[in-house]
């Protein structure tokens, strides 16, 4: 079973995806290639057009961006 994130985490994460992608000079299409997600799905996440994300997709994004999953979601340990 998978678990969806809550809205607050997703809202924070959309800001972080774009920020980390921009810092590393990675295009949406390149991030899509690295994660296996569609460029549209990534764009929708970054622009807040989706309110949830599968954990497996979040993990793929964190690996592709070389960012700890906790940092991507702003989860305190």
From TrEMBL:
InterPro entries associated with the record: Cro/C1-type_HTH, Lambda_DNA-bd_dom_sf
Residue span(s) of domain HTH cro/C1-type: 23-72
Annotated CDD domains: HTH_XRE
Domain of life of the source: Bacteria
Short name of one Pfam family: HTH_3
GO molecular function: DNA binding
Signal peptide interval: none
Name recorded for this polypeptide: XRE family transcriptional regulator
Source species of the chain: Agathobacter rectalis
């Amino acid at each position: 079973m998978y678990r969806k994130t809550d809205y607050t985490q997703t809202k924070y994460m959309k800001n972080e995806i774009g920020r980390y992608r921009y810092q590393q000079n990675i295009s949406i299409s390149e991030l899509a290639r690295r994660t296996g997600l569609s460029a549209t799905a990534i764009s929708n996440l970054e622009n807040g057009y989706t309110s949830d994300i599968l954990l497996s997709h979040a993990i793929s994004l964190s690996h592709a961006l070389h960012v700890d999953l906790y940092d991507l979601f702003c989860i305190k340990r």
